[in-house]
Amino acid sequence: MASPFLLAAAGQVGGDFFKERTSDTLPCQAQPDHVFCFDWAKENIDRYGTPTVQHLEIVVLSVVIGFAVAFALAVLAHRRRRLQPPLLAATGVLYTIPSIAFFFLLLPLTGFGRDTAIIVLAAYTLQIIYRNTILGLANVPDAVKDAARGMGLTERQILWRVELPLAIPEIVAGLRVAVVSTIAIATLVVFINAGGLGTQMYGSGNLTFPTSIIIAAAIVMTMALAFDLVLLTVQRLTTPWRRVRPA
Amino acid sequence: MNTLPLASFAGAIEFIFTPQDSNVTGGNKVGGFDKSLELVLKHLEVTALALAIALIVALPLGLYLGHRGKGELFAVGFGNAGRAIPELAVIALVAVLIGVGLKTVAPALAILGIAPILVNTYVGVRQVEPATVEAARGMGMSELSIIRRVELPLAIPTVMGGIRSAAIVILATATIAPLAGVETLGDFIINRNVYGENGLLAGAILVALLALAIEGSLALLQRRLTSDGLKVKTA
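Above: the input entities. Below: the structure tokens describing the complete assembly.
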């Protein structure tokens, strides 16, 4: 591997210097063709704690903000149908602009760091949650609403006690997609110095090494799977009437 | 907080059209229209190549599985897992394990596009009324022509939804392809020390515009591909 020039340079430092740094004595993670080093992983697993917590904080804050805004917009647009096309288009634009570009577009306004990351990721989730909430509300059969009206419920009561509970499956389905995508995309916030697990893949301007990238990616995907299962369980628990019907 | 001055939007627009001084290239100008165009074309090339690979793999598989009604767990599970893949990890692993360049980056980006196309094609075909397929079969159509002339046209809105998602995720991830040696628009963003803050913003503006342009074109294509009969129904 080493060029004659490098060998000469090493020779100037001293013959033994180069000899000791052959691939037999290099630690696993520094060898050119390694894929995964279990020893390094065992010793260094601690260093993933802080980035994991940062990653979680960013994802949870983004999705909570995104959900609050999207849910409010959907309830509003459910009442005023005329708002639906413009809101769909606006959230669609926010969804289409790649997050990595969006981060930098906000730099002149909100600068590097976590605030920018959360704004962009929250904006990204709007479309998914908004569209599914609208869909869920629209799927409630008119007969059910008529029955509720006949029982003397006000429009507000119908929304909160009939329409929204019946829309939970669609709303949670949207939330699951939003959370899982946000967990994956949040690795990119490393580019605006907002921390997270991306720092263990791309640290201080350079890619790290395979073992570290694989560990970080595994944590990201495990986190996504865990959130997905939790939300699926929430959906099951909040819609007991769905379990009566055979699948 | 180290906020860039607001004025840099103007600087970024100027950077796109006119070469600017840089403090690291020893007097050579950076940016400008020719360079921007070159990177836009490279960005489109990588995206188109990766999308083509994803389509070749996922579209026939989704059509086949959907037609046979098989492998729901595989198609949907793959789609969900695909969404959880961190884009940065894909590019990073390709660069450090397999090698840099268009030949390794395009297939890697295609992985990100396979999941949405596969799951949407599968779901789209499954949503076709069984009675419609039965009617086609009764008219003597072969299984292949049922897929091509009945199921695919009826599933086009859903299939195109998947293709649009795939195109956007591939285009977005192509932004970090310079980490794996492919000079896309992300070059302006990642080599911040060469292009400066104007270049950074210029890259972000161009990537955002490109994404909106692609999304718009695919939406138009979807309208063209959707049969007129379907348009009336879904007003």
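Note for the figure: Chain A has one domain: 36-238.
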